[in-house]
Specification:
Blueprint lengths: L13 E2 L2 H9 L10 E6 L7 H5 L4 E7 L2 H10 L7 E3 L7 H4 L4 E6 L5 H10 L6 E7 H8 L9 H9 E9 L4 E2 L6 E8 L9 H13 L5 H9 L19 H14 L1
Parallel strand pairs: 2-3, 2-5, 3-4, 5-6
Antiparallel strand pairs: 1-8, 6-9, 7-9
Helix pairs in contact: 5-7, 8-9, 8-10
């Protein structure tokens, strides 16, 4: 087998520029040669990132690959990597079962599941200190945007609550096979110092999702649709729209909702 056929259903666009692959892998922090850290590459494909990850002595590289044809390719070209290659769907994977300690995540993420991958990272935030991913540019911009931007949304707030997010660089369409119709970008998430939010975290997530559920409306209408009328009580944020609120604002609003719903 000389190459893997890109499958539209899996959102596969294989990176062909080795310099960019090297740059992506270099953006991920590691451990030391004496105490390497675990890194999971999501969607190894034909090993364009994998080869550079395997060349580092400060990490132990693992892979998650759902495409059977890619798995066969990796078996043929990276036999030493095979014991750490997990065939299956990353989104269904129990990370705690496979990795008892901290786990960094990296990958050229398929566009069609990139948001789901970040929600998976979010669910495992106490286990995942860092994530470096190449995704669709507009999604990368959305995740890194501050409050007040039209691109700022649910995942922006939730990820920024627990991670510092950096937009690293843009990647043109021409360095992929097949080339996508949009530009890509590489972002890096690093766990911030927030261990727990100063509110009910499950309710925080509900409040954020409810607020952005009707993002063109004022917060008052969005939250009342989800939680009722709060007995007629009003909050100063009720006349704002969801994209105007910071993580701290949503934390305060969550505490208010907990008291008044």
């Amino acid at each position: 087998m000389t190459e893997v056929r890109a499958k539209k259903a899996l959102g596969q666009h294989f990176l062909t520029d080795l310099n960019i692959a090297r740059k992506i892998c270099g953006a991920l922090a590691g451990g030391t040669a004496e105490a390497p850290c675990d890194v999971l590459e999501v969607g190894c494909g034909m090993g364009v990132l994998t080869q550079f990850l395997l060349g580092r002595d400060d990490i132990v590289t693992w892979g998650a690959e759902i495409d059977a044809e890619s798995v066969v390719y990796l078996h043929e070209h990276y036999p030493d990597f095979v014991p750490r290659l997990i065939e299956g769907d990353f989104l269904r994977m129990d990370l705690a079962e496979h990795f008892p300690g901290p786990l960094r995540i990296i990958g050229n993420f398929p566009y069609n599941i990139s948001s789901q991958i970040f929600f998976k990272v979010l669910e495992n935030r106490d286990r995942v200190p860092e994530c470096v991913g190449m995704i669709q540019k507009e999604v990368a911009v959305r995740l890194a945007e501050p409050p007040g931007s039209k691109e700022y949304g649910i995942l922006s707030v939730l990820l920024q609550a627990w991670y510092d997010i950096e937009y690293l660089f843009t990647v043109n369409e021409t360095v992929f096979n097949p080339p996508p119709k949009v530009k890509s970008a590489v972002i890096r998430l690093r766990r911030n110092g927030v261990e727990r939010l100063d509110c009910d975290e499950a309710l925080f997530i509900r409040v954020v999702k409810a607020a952005f559920g009707q993002r063109r409306k004022m917060i008052r209408n969005s939250l009342r649709a989800a939680f009722g009328d709060f007995g007629g009580a009003e909050h100063p944020f009720f006349t704002k729209r969801a994209e105007q609120l910071s993580v701290a604002d949503f934390t305060a609003l969550t505490n208010w909702v907990a008291e008044h719903r």
